[in-house]
Amino acid sequence: MSKAEIKDRARLKKKERRRQILLELKLRPHVRISELAQRFNVSTETVRRDFDALSGEGLIARAHGGASAPSQGHYPNLDERANSRIDERERIGRRAAKLVREGETVMIDSGSTTIEMARALAYLGTPCTVITNSIPVAMTLGHGAPEVLLCPGEYLAAESAVIGTETLEFLSRFNVDRCVIGSSGFSTEGPSESVRGFAAVKRMMLQRAEYRHLLIDSQKFGRKGLAHVGDLTGLQSIVVDSRPKDALLGALVAANVDIISTDDT
Amino acid sequence: MSKAEIKDRARLKKKERRRQILLELKLRPHVRISELAQRFNVSTETVRRDFDALSGEGLIARAHGGASAPSQGHYPNLDERANSRIDERERIGRRAAKLVREGETVMIDSGSTTIEMARALAYLGTPCTVITNSIPVAMTLGHGAPEVLLCPGEYLAAESAVIGTETLEFLSRFNVDRCVIGSSGFSTEGPSESVRGFAAVKRMMLQRAEYRHLLIDSQKFGRKGLAHVGDLTGLQSIVVDSRPKDALLGALVAANVDIISTDDT
DNA sequence: ATTATTTTGTTGCATAAGCCACGTTTCAGT
DNA sequence: ACTGAAACGTGGCTTATGCAACAAAATAAT
User: Fold this and answer.
1) What is the distance between the alpha carbons of residues A230 and A214, in angstroms, rounded to a whole number?
2) Which of A141, A163, A136 shows the shortest CA–CA distance to A152?
3) Tag placement on chain A: N or C end, fewer CB within 10 Å?
4) What is the 3-state secondary structure (H, E, C) of B149-213?
């Protein structure tokens, strides 16, 4: 008996429905319960139950009347950290955006802090050309004044960015005024990164830029990620929310790195 | 005194508040009106007005009770199109996804119909490699089985895709099993496209693929977009929601193009 | 077939959000 | 100070959503 066919036409099963909800959320920032109920031809209560289940698994974020994707470029640990460091990130991003001058060409790395910078840059509306491997950065800037060149590469869903040899090869073809990178660790040995494949991208960006900036949250001082990105001497300046001290400060001075702190008046 | 002048010297309070809203949305997928009203110590009406203004500028996506970032899929042009003929698109997408076999390499074009196909393909979970210039397609497939290679290029916010010489050059380096494209028009002369810069991308994809498929809504039969994409003879098959008739059918038969209709049982 | 289990629908009500109109406050320019 | 425009708040009302408990239907298991 072809019950399956009949069901397929009439109504989707639970699993399929939830799958569709997740897919929909990859394309739209927000879906409404009422919309989905209509689309799936089920009651709003059913959709609500789907939402409860999915949000229990952390796959969606509930909202009054609907749901959204958990987070833009959902970074694994972002939720915990970001909530406690909103201001720091925002300030670092704003300060860093001011470094970019009209008409410049800038490479921007992927990462939560660089997304903040992109937001600030979009707000400033500085006309410039941005080359990035981060989808959120491209989308943020894409609506505004800057021209955006997106890198090719293997798409990494977890970070909403591209990496790989294609990315590196593409970056290697450009010479830019500045590059702005973030990193998951920062010690006297320089920035380091723990996400696979990102270190190489950051390294290449540093190589192709005349002025090299690192955006780094003071929480990351002293931490070391898996892969070494580069030496301190390779940086012109770091943008931080609070000035480093002791050994790290000494190393930065020795390496002649400018420290731009949002703490300074 | 002109209104423009007043606008220029917009109040700090309002401006700052709206800036904060945007910032918040970069970190969270969704904010509630009630939350913001409390946080800024203003009435909900004020926040509502902020939302109206911001959503008018396309900076946020409104929702019942709050708003979300337009981040993941804000396609101004796509929205209108997507709302009509959802079923047709879904069926076409589902059918087209079945064309892809395990291990194949596929180029997928940007467009609302190809996004539907990407969804279906993600659902099927066919392991394959996808090369695309569409951000939504990359994001949809990125979480699943397929490997995704994103093209470089100039980011076009309105279509959430990349175009330009970089894109073409990148595509030209690959030889793939299939390519799947959409178009805004389809006549006896072949598919045509009205969005600037897209025709060239489609043409290049057709050039690099062994099997070439066109996904096309029957509403577009007979329409001609600005730029010619290619001849009918360049296509192996078209996937449609309803079989073409008369002259178009004749031309397709003459060009030896397979017609895959979702109407067929 | 029958029962048990899961899934979905329905109803009623409390709460939240939307919306409109009007009054009040704020602030730049005079 | 004065004034007018813009921004903001308040109140009254309508609509939408959330929630919970129970009924109905579908599905799975025996």
Assistant:
1) 11
2) A163
3) C
4) EECCEEEECCCCEEECHHHHHHHCCCCEEEEEEECCEEECCEEEECCCCHHHHHHHHHHHEEEEE
Region A70-89: mean pLDDT is: 51
Separation of A2 CA and D2 C1' (Å)? 82
Q: Which nucleotide is nearest to B52 (CA to C1')?
A: C18
Chain centre to alpha carbon of residue B6: 39
The model's pLDDT over A26-50, given as tens digits with 9 standing for 90+, comes to 667 788 898 888 888 888 999 999 8
Q: Is B56 in the A-facing interface, judged by CB distances under 8 Å?
A: no
Asked if A66's CB is within 8 angstroms of B64's CB, the reply is yes
Sorted by where each starts, the structural domains of chain B and their CATH numbers stand as 3-68 (1.10.10.10), 79-261 (3.40.50.1360)
Q: What is the pLDDT of residue B164?
A: 95
Using the CA of A15, give the nucleotide whose C1' is nearest. C7
Query: What's the pLDDT tens digit per position in B57-89?
Result: 777 888 898 888 765 444 444 444 444 566 678
Distance of CA B121 to the CA centre of its chain: 15
Strands (E), A44-110: 61-63, 66-68, 105-108
Cα(B238)–Cα(B19) distance, integer angstroms? 47
Can you tell me whether residue A212 is helix, strand or coil?
Answer: strand
Work out the pLDDT band at A10, boundaries 50, 70, 90: very low
Assess whether B143 (CB) lies less than 7 A from strand D: no
Footprint of strand C on the protein (CB under 7 A): A 13-14, 17, 41-43, 45-46, 49-50, 64-65; B 1, 5, 9, 11, 13, 32-34, 44-45, 48, 62-66
CB–CB contact B155 A138 (8 Å): yes
- How far are the Cα atoms of B56, B89, B124, B168, B204 from residue B172, in angstroms, in the given order? 39, 29, 28, 6, 7
Give the whole-angstrom CA distance, residue B205 versus residue B96: 16
CB contact under 8 A, B156 and A149: no
CB atoms < 10 A from the CB of B8, how many? 8
CA-closest candidate to residue B157, choices A146, A246, A165, A163: A146
Min CA distance, B223 vs chain A (Å)? 28
pLDDT tens per residue across span A163-176: 999 999 999 999 99
Q: Which nucleotides of C are covered by protein (CB under 7 A)?
A: 7-11, 16-21, 27-30
**CA proximity to B132, closest of B113, B155, B109:** B109
Cβ-based contacts (< 7 Å) between A 21-50 and strand D: 32-34, 44-45, 48
pLDDT for residue B134 = 94
Please name the residue that has the structure tokens 């050994």.
A247
B173 shares contact with chain A (CB less than 8 Å): no
Q: In this structure, what token pair is assigned to residue A97?
A: 């955006």
Distance from CA of B70 to the nearest CA of A (A): 6
